[in-house]
Amino acid sequence: MGGEIIGFIIWSAFSCLFICLALYAWFAKKPMGFWANIEIFEVSDVKKYNHAMSKLFCIFGIILIILGLPLLAGQNSAWILLSVIGVMIESIAAMIVYTLVIEKHRK
To answer: Which residues, other chains included, contact 5 with Cβ-Cβ below 8 Å and sequence gap of 6+?
Structure first.
């Protein structure tokens, strides 16, 4: 098995962790946090909030898998820049969506 495939499998495994986190958020009874080491604010509708968080994490994980496809092109491929820049943009977009859309469920 080539190094490209092993790298993509590892990348996909980490991406699947976000999808697993989405499944956990979907069934969670307490509000799911987004930021590390910060207490979650009071949520008016926990189920709706957690479903929104679940969708965010699931979409993040799927796009992360797609952004890992350039790893299959080889070690010295310039396409890897697409992955690096794409992950930065995706992370910033997730923060924006959380702040402007999902945080509306505050009490």
So the answer is: 72
User: What would the pLDDT profile of 21-41 be if each residue is shown by its tens digit?
Assistant: 999 999 999 988 888 777 777
Scanning the structure block, which residue is given the tokens 């009490």?
A: 107
CA end-to-end distance (rounded Å), the chain: 52
Please give the structure tokens belonging to residue 88. Answer: 């930065």
Q: How many residues does the chain have?
A: 107
Q: In whole angstroms, what is the distance from residue 66 CA to residue 50 CA? A: 24
- Model confidence pTM above 0.85: yes
106 CB-side CA count, 13 A: 8
